[in-house]
Amino acid sequence: MNVQWYPGHMTKARRMMQEDMKLIDLVIELVDARVPLSSRNPDIDELGKNKARLILLNKSDLSDDAANEKWARYFQEKGFFVAKINSKSGAGVKSLQGIILEACKEKIERDRRRGIKNRPIRAMVVGIPNVGKSTFINTFAGRACAKTGNKPGVTKGKQWIRLNKNVELLDTPGILWPKFEDQAVGVRLAFIGSIKDDILNIDELSLLLIENLCTRYPGALTERYGISEEGKPVAVLEAVAESRNCILKGQELDYSKAAGILLDDFRSGKLGRITLEDVPLNQEKA
Length: 286
Fold this sequence. Notes:
Layout: H1 8-20, E1 26-32, H2 43-47, E2 52-58, H3 65-77, E3 81-84, H4 96-103, H5 105-113, E4 121-126, H6 133-141, E5 159-162, E6 167-171, H7 183-192, H8 202-216, H9 220-225, H10 233-243, H11 255-267
Parallel strand pairs: 1-2, 1-4, 2-3, 4-6
Antiparallel strand pairs: 5-6
Helix pairs in contact: 8-10, 8-11, 10-11
């Protein structure tokens, strides 16, 4: 399955981010805890070098708890500050104020030596589309400051948000990178909804998801739909269609409707807490 999506506004957003990077002290990067590596834009490391870094494993309520711990350790070993959060419910968000101050300790100390007092930490919030940046900002600020939506591409321009006397946030549009070197990355991003469904083959995507789930979380589909996971993915999708009464006129199975139900159930956590990516082995520490 070939997945590509790089609208023109993303090139503009990247240039804008590069310019704004000069103004900020800390890069807060949201990743989707179900696919922590695939949901990182590799450009961010280049754009944010020499800045304090904080990675937020967002939607950590939808991902496997044991995997969350492994990913948190992985990023900490790379030199990042890390927190597990759920931006919708606010879980883990309260602890961030302290983590931000810790991450910017050197900057605060440097300001103090120069006689600069009470200058707020300026943090840029970054992440790929639909990873939950705007929801996070609104939850963190305790008010609706950023537009939210469950479709990628809701945030169109930048905006500064004053959280309190210590922290200012810069919201930025979600940006993907121009080309997925590894098509598996594109597929994982399609699974979590970071690529618009209307440019994808949903039937094909659902078969790939079935393959992943049957390998990594055997029994999850049986538990949800009361079906057998034996046989090829298309047979499993047929069983999902039958169990959810996805029938067209003439008693034909409606595969597309079943595929949509399956993807929605995965994205909303109805199939259980699932992580679709493993920590890389033998990674050197940064």
